[in-house]
Amino acid sequence: MxxxxxxxxxxxxxxxxxxxxxxxxxxxxxxxxxxxxEDSSVSSPPENAVPSTPAQPLPSVPSDPYPNDPGTGNSTxxxxxxxxxxxxxxxxxxDDTAAFKAAWKAACAVESATxxxxxxxxxxxxxxxxxxxxxxxxVFKVDGTLMPPDGPESWPKADSPRxxxxxxxxxxxxxxxxxxxxxxxxxxxxxxxxxxxxxNGSTLPGPCDSPAxxxxxxxxxLAVNSLRIQNSPMFHMKFDGCEGVLIEKLSISSPKLSPxxxxxxxxxxxxxxxxxxxxxxxxTCGPSHGISIGSLGVHNSQACVSNITVRNAVIRxxxxxxxxxxxxxxxxxxxxxxxxxxxxxxxxNCIIVDQYYCLSKDCLNQTSAVFVNQVLYKNxxxxxxxxxxxxxxxxxxxxxxxxxTMSEVELLPHEGELVEDxxxxxxxxxxxxxxxxxxxxxxxxxxxxVAETSEYSC
Length: 458
Prior knowledge:
Blueprint: E1 11-13, E2 17-33, E3 79-82, E4 91-95, H1 97-108, E5 113-117, E6 122-124, E7 128-131, E8 138-142, E9 145-147, E10 163-168, E11 171-176, E12 180-182, H2 186-189, E13 196-197, E14 203-204, E15 212-217, E16 220-225, E17 228-230, E18 237-240, E19 243-248, E20 251-253, E21 264-267, E22 270-275, E23 278-280, E24 291-296, E25 302-316, E26 320-326, E27 331-347, E28 349-354, E29 371-384, E30 391-394, E31 401-413, E32 423-425, E33 427-431
Parallel strand pairs: 3-5, 4-6, 5-8, 6-9, 7-10, 8-11, 9-12, 10-15, 11-16, 12-17, 15-18, 16-19, 17-20, 18-21, 19-22, 20-23, 24-26, 25-27, 26-28, 27-29, 28-30, 29-31, 30-32, 31-33
Antiparallel strand pairs: 1-24, 2-22, 2-23, 2-25, 13-14
InterPro entries: Glyco_hydro_28, PbH1, Pectin_lyas_fold, Pectin_lyase_fold/virulence
Protein name: Polygalacturonase
Subcellular location: Secreted, Cell wall
């Protein structure tokens, strides 16, 4: 799935994912190098740009600030800039873009200001870039409903078809509120160039451009909390070239057959904490794609992903559970990954490493690969859909997966007979405890060519 230009490091949090009080999904370090998108507009932040230098020293991974507090965690300020005071109508029909831009300009210039989208009103704005730098402590507070134009026919031709709300070059900003950001995605999903289910479970062609709903670009020390975000034309939320991101108490949702509506998409970003959120959305071929790292290494690019922790989550009725996917021909590495305390319910591919990822039947075998190393699966339990084996390690012929550890992995069929034959190809690791189903195909020790894998490290 995705994308043009720089092929990115992704963490898809696109299952029905419940993260309990002490839980987290942390992405501490990952970046990707590749070609720039040649058709990026010069009037907006490049869609797939890779920042050359970080704006701030690397923040530590944000911790959950409200581990036992049922409150919303919303920020408040005495300096409130209500968009209706700048001419916004809020009737769901009037274009309120100019009022939002004016309110942003005023709030941006004041320390600890709040741009307020008031409750009980519905505001429509077109694709907008809210640029910084601004004074620190800026809060964008959505208590009403905020939405884009209704579908591609209503989308202004001069606006980018790839993004709607963009927050650019900001530091110490919060996006929060008790309201809803409504994506109006239905007409985008129905485009004939979108992947759809065809007859007898087949998939019809796609994809084509659609806007990501919210994009943070080249920003630092961000907080996003408490909002309802729904029905995005494509990705609901995207972080690109950012440092220090705290996400908590979000509700993200779209119908199960909506194509490419990833929940939280993270690329070229350091220091991320995701807590206490519920994400339920759709993908091309099923209710969800679970939690994915990748795809990585497209067009022979380098990918570097490390220090990712996914803990205390539930994944239900998903095509995939915990997935790492890379293209052949790439380089770099995926290392120090922990999946812990994950409950599966009727998931087709509960645990999967796929180093042969390809969107067509035309991909050729290549010797180079992104090196997958040091992946721990601990306390992974639940049920799987017997149409697929619940554990699948398809590693590169030339660059083996190494140091895979299985501990307290117990996966039983949701319905039907137990599948007792997990798949492994060139995968090395250990079983600290007996795995259900047994995974005898995981090889012990190190591959013969392990010395060669050092060239793939980042």
